[in-house]
Amino acid sequence: MGISHIITTISVFVTGLLPMSCHKAAPQPKTSPVTTMTITANSTNILHNLGEVSLTNHLETCVQLGGGKNCLLVPRMVDSHNLELTVSLESRTSAGRTVDLTVTQVTTKSGKPLDIALGDYQLTFTPKLQ
Length: 130
Hints:
Strand content: over 45%
Order of helices and strands: HEEEEEEEE
Structural class: mainly beta
Number of helices: 1
Strand order of the largest sheet: 1-2-8-7
Mean pLDDT: 77
Number of strands: 8
Shape: globular
């Protein structure tokens, strides 16, 4: 069993854990989100300001970024002040097939602004745990 086979198996397993479609969009922030593109010498960074995102402990929130890209946010309360946030960025074809998946996990405080880099995307938002 080669390393590429193991990586493929893990990718298929993780993809199977994610829902087939998003059903909930983040509430619109009071100011309109800012989407800009900055081109650097080596890569493209796409910036998204999601504003304040309301989250519920252990429940997934899906934010549609457009172009077949979705951001999935899953919070887990660590203690009375901190939450562990799993952030996934996925790309899907029009048929619903996942073609790209990036996952990261951070520990942060509810109500504090957060910047996360996922692949070519830079997300800025304030997680608000209800």
